[in-house]
Amino acid sequence: MKRSIDPHAFGLHKAAYSVLETMAILSIGRSSLYRIINDGRLPAVKFGKKTLFYASDIAAFLTHLKETGSDVHGHTKSGTGGEKLNA
User: Fold this and answer.
1) Which of 1, 12, 64, 87 is deepest in the core (most CB within 10 A)?
2) Class of 13-68 in CATH
3) Rounded CA gap, 83 and 86, in Å?
4) CA–CA separation, 26 vs 33, rounded Å?
């Protein structure tokens, strides 16, 4: 069963976010965002021609990054797991 993650914990207050908003939230470019979508790591929904991302899915994606120690590109950091990624 999928664990429920509170989007408010990440400062997400809307139900869904656009592509541009999601890029800003994750601090990534369009190509990286679509790579994450195509890899199946962040689900996107279509509303007409608009692509949206549910806040709960963004929060789950960010939580997964934190728990696995990987960055948005799917690379894991080396070391014991306690270090922070250099940005």
Assistant:
1) 12
2) mainly alpha
3) 9
4) 9
Decide: 53 and 45 in contact? Cβ < 8 Å: yes
Tokens of 4: 């429920």
What would the two tokens of residue 46 be?
Answer: 């279509």
pLDDT tens figures, 45-83: 999 999 999 999 999 999 999 888 876 666 665 544 444
Token output for 69? 């120690």
Question: Which pTM was predicted?
Answer: 0.75
Our measurement of the distance from residue 8's CA atom to the centroid of its chain's CA atoms, rounded to an integer in Å, reads 14
Residue 51, CA distances (Å) to 16, 54, 64 in order:
10, 10, 22
For every residue of 23-80, DSSP letters joined together read HHHHT--HHHHHHHHHTTSS--EEETTEEEEEHHHHHHHHHHHHHHTB-TTSPBPPSS
What residues does 16 pair with on adjacent strands?
A: 54
